[in-house]
Specification:
six-stranded mixed sheet, four-stranded antiparallel sheet, 2 domains, 4 helices, alpha+beta, about 450 residues, globular, about 30% strand, Neuraminidase
Length: about 450
C-alpha cells in the first residue's frame, strides 16, 4: 500500500515536472526560431549592403581610358596608412594609373563618358603656360580662344608684362585626329596669338560670345584698371571696354564671368589675385560677386562673404548660380588648406537676381575649384588640382578627368567635345555629355 502511494506521488511529481518544463521547451523553440529568422534577415541585408558597396557595382568592362575608383575601396586605409598631407601636391590615384584617364567614382559617370570616350592633348608648349583661363568657343568658326597665365608660373607676365590671348582652330584638331589614326595619341596644333589693344590687361576670364563679341574679363595691371571688354573675334583690335570701375573706384582684379541665360545681364567675380600674384596694388574692396547691366551701365553687388570668389556658372534655366571659392590658394602668401576649396550654390532671386540661400555644393579633394561649367543634364564640372571633377546636381562626385596636373578652366565646344585648359597643355575629351550654350543671345 505504501509502495502504491509512493508510486502515485512519483507519477504526480513527474507530471508536474513535465508541465513545468513544457513552457520552457516551447520558449526555447520560439527563441531558436526567432534567432534563425534574425540571422537570415541579417545575412540578407549584409549581402545586399556588400553588393551595393563592393566594386561589383561597377561594370566588369569599362570604356577606354576609364579606371574604377570605388569609394568603398579606400573608405578605410588603416592606422598606419600613408594619408595625404597636401591637397595641392598629393593626388588620390588608388590604382596608380597613368594620366590622362577617366577616374570613375560612381557608375553614373559612365553615362557622361559614353561607350567610346577619349581624352588627349591637342596643343602643347612645355615651357609656357599659354592655356590658363578665359576659354570661349566660337561656333561660327569652330575656334577656341584662351588666355595665358597672368602672373603665375611659366606665364611670363607680371607687373611690367601683359599676358597673351590666343586661339586654336578645332577643325584643324579634327583633321589631325583623323590623320593620326589613334584615339589617344597627343597632337600639337597651331596656336595663334591675338593682337589686342593696350586697354586689355591681364585677361583672366572669358565667356560668350555676347552679341557676337568675345566677352573678356581682365584683371588689370599696375594702376591700369580691371575691365570688362567686348572683342571682335574677326578683328581683335576692334575692342570696347564696357566697365572699368565701381562708382569711381577700381575693382581689385576681375576674375571670371557668365551671362545670365534669361536676362542677358553679366555676372562677374572680383578677387584679390592681382595683388596676390604681385601685378596689382593693395586691394581696396571686398571679394564679391557683381551684376552688370550692359544696357544701362548699372553695376551692383549680388553676393559677398567669400574668401576668394573665382569661377561662376548658372544652371540652364538661370535659377541656380554656382560660385567657386578658391580661398586656400593664396598666391605669394602660400596655400592654406584650412581655407575654402569649395563650390557654393545659390538661388537666383527672380526679381532682383541677387544670390540667395547660400549652401555648400561640393568641397574638392585636390587643389581648388577654379572654372566651372554645367552640362545639359545639370552635372557640374570644375577645373581642380588634378584635372576636372564632375558632380551630379545633388553634389555627389561622379568622376574625374584625371590629368595629374592643374586645370584652371574648361568649356564645351559643340556636342560631346570638352576642352580643358591645363596651363602648358590643352586637352580634348570626346564624351557623350554635351553642354548648353553660354552665349547671348
Amino acid at each position: 500500500m505504501q509502495k502504491s502511494i509512493n508510486t502515485d506521488k512519483e507519477d504526480t511529481l513527474k507530471d508536474k515536472s513535465n508541465e513545468s518544463r513544457a513552457p520552457w521547451s516551447l520558449m526555447r523553440s520560439t527563441n531558436l526560431l526567432a534567432s534563425l529568422v534574425a540571422l537570415l534577415v541579417g545575412l540578407y541585408y549584409a549581402t545586399a549592403s556588400a553588393q551595393q558597396a563592393s566594386p561589383s557595382s561597377f561594370p566588369t568592362k569599362l570604356p577606354p581610358q576609364s579606371v574604377p575608383a570605388d569609394p568603398q575601396s579606400f573608405a578605410v586605409l588603416g592606422q598606419n596608412a600613408p594619408f595625404r598631407q597636401s591637397a595641392f601636391t598629393q593626388f588620390l590615384n588608388p590604382t596608380n594609373a597613368s594620366p590622362p584617364f577617366f577616374q570613375v567614382f560612381d557608375p553614373a559617370f559612365l553615362d557622361i563618358l559614353g561607350e567610346t570616350p577619349s581624352i588627349r592633348v591637342v596643343a602643347s608648349n612645355p615651357g609656357f603656360a599659354f592655356a590658363h583661363e578665359a576659354p570661349i568657343w566660337l561656333s561660327s568658326t569652330n575656334e577656341l580662344f584662351f588666355a595665358s597665365n597672368d602672373g603665375g608660373p611659366l606665364g611670363f607676365s607680371n607687373l611690367t608684362q601683359n599676358n597673351q590671348y590666343a586661339k586654336i582652330n578645332l577643325t584643324e584638331v579634327e583633321a589631325a585626329i583623323t590623320a593620326s589614326h589613334s584615339a589617344t595619341s597627343p597632337l600639337n596644333v597651331t596656336v595663334s596669338k591675338l593682337d589686342l589693344p593696350d586697354t586689355i590687361q591681364m585677361t583672366n576670364g572669358g565667356t560668350g560670345p555676347f552679341r557676337g563679341a568675345l566677352l573678356l574679363v581682365n584683371s588689370g595691371r599696375g594702376l591700369l584698371p580691371p575691365t570688362l571688354a567686348l572683342v571682335d573675334p574677326t578683328n581683335p583690335r576692334n575692342t570696347t571696354v564696357i566697365l572699368d570701375n565701381y562708382f569711381g573706384r577700381q575693382f581689385n582684379s576681375l576674375n571670371d564671368a557668365k551671362i545670365h541665360p534669361k536676362s542677358g545681364k553679366i555676372f562677374f567675380t572680383d578677387v584679390t589675385y592681382g595683388w596676390l600674384n604681385q601685378f596689382r596694388p593693395l586691394p581696396l574692396m571686398p571679394n564679391q560677386v557683381y551684376r552688370f547691366d550692359p544696357d544701362t551701365g548699372v553695376v551692383r553687388a549680388v553676393a559677398d562673404g567669400f574668401d576668394r570668389p573665382n569661377g561662376i556658372a548658372f544652371s540652364e534655366d538661370g535659377q541656380t548660380a554656382y560660385i567657386a571659392d578658391t580661398g586656400s590658394s593664396r598666391g605669394f602668401l602660400g596655400n592654406n588648406q584650412t581655407e575654402p576649396a569649395t563650390v557654393y550654390a545659390f538661388d537666383v532671386d527672380p526679381k532682383s537676381q541677387a544670390f540667395l540661400n547660400r549652401r555648400v555644393f561640393a568641397y574638392v579633394d585636390t587643389g581648388v575649384p577654379d572654372g566651372v561649367q554645367l552640362d545639359s543634364k545639370g552635372n557640374l564640372y570644375a577645373s581642380c588640382g588634378d584635372g576636372v571633377h564632375v558632380w551630379d546636381s545633388t553634389g555627389k562626385l561622379l568622376g574625374k578627368f584625371f590629368l595629374g596636373t592643374v586645370s584652371s578652366n574648361l568649356v564645351f565646344a559643340g556636342k560631346g567635345h570638352l576642352m580643358i585648359l591645363a596651363e602648358t597643355n590643352i586637352f580634348l575629351a570626346q564624351i557623350a555629355a554635351t553642354g548648353f550654350s553660354v552665349a547671348f543671345p
